[in-house]
């Protein structure tokens, strides 16, 4: 049996608890066993002879078998979660220190012929200090993915708004630390004229700023470097992306409280979460916000390399573009989501059946929308779908077909009317995997 094989593989994965390779391999085997079992049952094979004579009993047995196998897959995924997060933590640390190494190599290559400057030393010291701080933060949050911990939302997905805000905060922190280190290493202000525009070590047009500083002979002071007129665009951009982060969370929270937005926890965060919605489809609002924010951020970083004597300037036209992108993103956040709603409940009629009222034991088809929230189309969330018929709670059976499930779907559910439902009028409602209950529709059950 596929479920027994998954359990045997699970025992092996448990023996290697904490091993990322064994955890991922065990989860892949469990998923493969579930898919094989689903397609086998969809083809009509593997059903015990004791229930094969009754379509209702066979369907219920198949649903229970798939639900058990789905729970095994979820258990494997949960067991492999800490190992995956540890890989993410180590990958983040490698990326941080790799960036420091790239900066050092870039400085060494561009220093050939021009010599090593104070600005290069300040840039390297700033990168080392910031990398050390990030490494300490990653160690403190090692159980949640290290550096990705602040970027993961309550639904266990990477947040686009948090990622953008973190990138801007990182640039601003690097700029402040770099300018502070540069002033500490530079000494008297008279020396700044020869250092202006030498760059952090990577970039084009480095000598232009130096010639301008030498021709003017003006020394760059602390008020000039940290002055508000030059840094107003940068600070406005940071305030804008921070406001978008807070507002997006308020919009999502309000949508969940109103029952309009359904959130199902993901099994693990993925890089695709930054560009996709909860169902895994590419989201245009997220894509454009990430691209526009990244482009403006890159231009600001290039400005720092070209003129390292002051905070990078962000033109107001780019600030306006970032604001329009943020409005688009928030408007899309506000418009997403749909409240689960029942439109009608009818008796499910098989081929050859006569038209008749709803009786105990009949199948009823519930038509509406929003029954399967985004991200809840996996087998385990589908097993948590419940139909409330009067005082009775009926779990929706899983009906497999090759490559997926015919029941339930986002717009229709088919469930047998339980024998405990008494004849008369009964109210029907659906409770989704996100815990949201639909409106109630009254049906007449005859004896």
Give the low-pLDDT segments.
1-15, 188-199, 201-219
Spatial extent as radius of gyration: 30 Å
Total number of strands = 10
Given helix and strand content, the structural type is alpha+beta
Strand order in space, largest sheet? 2-10-9-4-5
Structure report:
- With 447 residues, this protein is α+β, with helices and mostly antiparallel strands.
- 54% of the residues lie in helices and 11% in strands.
- It has helices at residues 2-15, 20-42, 49-52, 55-110, 118-140, 160-186, 192-195, 206-216, 222-225, 228-257, 284-306, 316-335, 379-382; strands at 341-347, 358-359, 363-369, 386-389, 392-395, 399-401, 404-407, 412-416, 424-431, 441-446.
- The strands form three sheets. A five-stranded mixed β-sheet has the order 2-10-9-4-5, with no helix packed on it. It has a three-stranded antiparallel β-sheet with strand order 1-3-8, with no helix packed on it.
Short structural summary:
The protein is 54% helix and 11% strand.
Based on the model shown, name its key terms.
447 residues; five-stranded mixed sheet; 13 helices; alpha+beta; disordered N terminus
């Amino acid at each position: 049996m596929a479920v027994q094989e998954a359990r045997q593989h699970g025992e092996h994965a448990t023996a290697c608890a904490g091993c990322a390779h064994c955890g991922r391999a065990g989860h892949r085997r469990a998923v493969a066993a579930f898919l094989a079992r689903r397609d086998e049952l969809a083809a009509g094979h593997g059903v015990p002879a004791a229930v094969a004579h009754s379509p209702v009993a066979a369907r219920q047995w198949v649903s229970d078998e798939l639900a058990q196998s789905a729970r095994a897959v979820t258990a494997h995924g949960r067991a492999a979660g800490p190992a995956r997060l540890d890989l993410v933590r180590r990958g983040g640390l490698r990326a941080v220190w790799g960036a420091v190494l790239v900066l050092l190599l870039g400085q060494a290559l561009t220093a050939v012929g021009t010599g090593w400057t104070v600005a290069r030393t300040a840039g390297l010291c700033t990168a080392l200090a910031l990398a050390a701080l990030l490494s300490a933060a990653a160690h403190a949050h090692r159980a949640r993915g290290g550096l990705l911990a602040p970027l993961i939302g309550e639904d266990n997905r990477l947040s686009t708004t948090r990622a953008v805000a973190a990138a801007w905060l990182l640039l601003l922190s690097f700029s402040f630390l770099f300018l502070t280190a540069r002033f500490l290493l530079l000494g008297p202000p008279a020396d700044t004229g020869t250092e202006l525009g030498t760059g952090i070590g990577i970039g084009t047009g480095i000598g232009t700023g130096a010639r301008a500083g030498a021709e003017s002979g003006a020394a760059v002071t602390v008020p000039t470097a940290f002055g508000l007129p030059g840094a107003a665009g940068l600070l406005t951009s940071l305030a804008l992306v921070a406001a978008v982060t807070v507002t997006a969370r308020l919009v999502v929270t309000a949508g969940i409280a109103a029952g309009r937005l359904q959130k199902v926890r993901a099994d693990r965060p993925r890089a695709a979460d930054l560009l996709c919605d909860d169902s895994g489809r590419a989201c245009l609002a997220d894509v454009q916000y990430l691209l526009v924010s990244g482009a403006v951020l890159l231009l600001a970083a290039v400005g720092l390399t070209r003129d390292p004597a002051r905070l990078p300037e962000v033109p107001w036209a780019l600030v306006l573009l970032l604001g329009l992108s943020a409005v688009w993103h928030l408007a899309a956040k506000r418009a997403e989501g749909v409240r689960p709603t029942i439109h009608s409940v009818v008796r499910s009629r098989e081929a050859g059946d006569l038209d008749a009222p709803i009786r105990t034991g009949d199948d009823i088809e519930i038509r509406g929308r929003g029954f399967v929230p985004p991200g809840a189309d996996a087998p385990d969330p589908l097993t948590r779908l419940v139909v409330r018929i009067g005082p009775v709670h009926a779990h929706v059976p899983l009906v497999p077909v090759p490559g997926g499930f015919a029941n339930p779907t986002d717009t229709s559910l088919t469930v047998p009317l339980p024998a405990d439902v008494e004849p008369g009028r009964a109210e029907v409602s659906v409770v989704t995997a996100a815990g949201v209950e639909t409106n109630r529709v009254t049906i007449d059950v005859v004896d």
